[in-house]
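Morning, I've got a small favour to ask if you have a moment. I've dropped the whole record in just underneath, so have a look.
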Amino acid sequence: MTYEPDPPTRRYDPAPPVDPAYRDPQEEVVHERTEDSHARRIRTVRIITSLVSFITGLFAVVLAINIVLVLAGANPDNGFAAFIGDFAGAVSLGFDGLFTPESEKLAVLLNHGLAAIVWLLIGAAVNFLVRRFALPTGANRTVSYRRTIT
């Protein structure tokens, strides 16, 4: 008894080409590249939200670095520590002096920590509002059509 292998099978059988004789001569399928204003708007909204996230995140990071420098006892006469301290004072949203405990380190922790959290909340709120009101509605939008030539 001899064993004959099965003929090889093809995994992918493409659809047979359509015979032009079976096509409706009055119907033409049109493929056009169109300018989608929704795609441009979505791209613009993403850029804006990225910028808002970057800026508010940067402010929160500067405040956090200032907290770490003050808690670690960094030399305030150092150029880097002075720059971070001045920058943190400028972006502290007026929270400097909100809490006045006995320790200066605890005051910086509370005041600048609260300012950093508020910056992150401001960034999240602005991003939510921009996405909510600037993004187009109708996520399942399809642009396709058939055109009949007469």
